[in-house]
Amino acid sequence: MAVWSEVALTELKHGRVDSEFYKPDYIEIERQLLNNANIELKSISKKIDVGHVGSMVQNYCQEGVILLQTQQIDQFFLNLNNCVKITPAFHKKLKKSQIHKGDILVARSGSFGKASIYLDEDTINSADIIIIDIQESIISKGFFLSFLNSRFGSEQLIRFASGGVQGHVNLKILESLIIPIINIYQQEMICKLLKKSYAARKKSNELYDQAQGVIGQEFGLYDIKFQDVVDYETSFSDISSAFRIDAQCYNPNYIAYEKHLKKKNVDYTFLRLLISSMDKGKQMPINSSGTMPYASIKDIDGIELVAESYCFPTKEAQIATSGNLLLAITGATIGKIGIVNQYEKLAFSGDLLKLEICNNINPFYLLAVMQSQIGQSQCSRWITGSTNGHLSPKDVGKIVIPRLETAKEEYISQKLKESLRLKEESKQFLEQVTQMVEDLIEQAAGQT
Questions:
Q1: What angle in degrees, to the nearest 10, is found between the helix axes of 363-371 and 373-381?
Q2: What pTM does this model have?
Q3: Neighbours of 403 (CB within 10 A)
């Protein structure tokens, strides 16, 4: 059914005449906020600026200063996986795009409607990200962050985006963001929950790093040294066993870990001997009223699957169950892998390969190895296709999995399990925060 709204000429704002800006949902959110005690962002802001816009690839480096990009902006806290780095010299030049502890960060383009806070001590840099700093005499940063991630803040951010397909948030309009004023006691309650969430998240990341650290130490991975490779050769016997003649398959940097394990006489086996089945997923129509969670590559969140979509399962659907691993086998994120942990059953797309584990290995240990340099380098080695890369189930089975004593494998597995538990605990605190903010605004609006 068509939905429309009429706006008087005198009610036009910010030079916007596009219908999108005046959607009924946006108007209703604005009405509720204006019916509450409120303040505009420009009244409390110390800084509203944007990170560097333009190419800086020539200033990327392996060891340098973290450069935040749009994909690192998540709800409440940053996702610091796969960050690029820039040279310290270039970082010093980009003073206005530098990020300091306590800065609130909003994606200027792409994933609108999310806001993060930077809580580390080191000064880092940013590209195409809005940086906001506020005075905290009326509004605390914790409450401001929570409001931005509630539907009342998120919808305003989405509304302020302009530019059609490749939209961006206009800084001038952002100054007019309406923020509700609530009492200090309620703001403090929200900030306490945020601190609990961050502490659980931080501990979760530490446990994951500890698990990876044990793998690195046990197998001596930190002793491996890589060199810039110009050319290399392999033997006919290697080609015969791999059934591959492409140069990529024999890149020394990809096979270094395998050679290292063999040289150290580490006990290892092939992945195909640790799994009872490998099944490729099936593309399914997404339906908001579907009865089963449906996952694709984008739903691999760290080390687990967090499905954002649903489908109606058919006979053709491929189903994963709790404890199965799903491995990305196509696209730019080949090798990305997560465990089905939150769901009894989950349908999954054709970009993913289900690994059903045998009883002789803990799936969390296998997950840890596959996410380590050992697993990721081998995934890169076995990719086929130049334009559209692909990882075949046959080649996945060739991946070498080093083994440890049962007690050590269980130790690593427990680290990952606890990491996931704390991650879920952190998420629950954030859900409480969002619900609290929205309830306070709705209650206040209903009393006027």
A1: 70
A2: 0.87
A3: 16
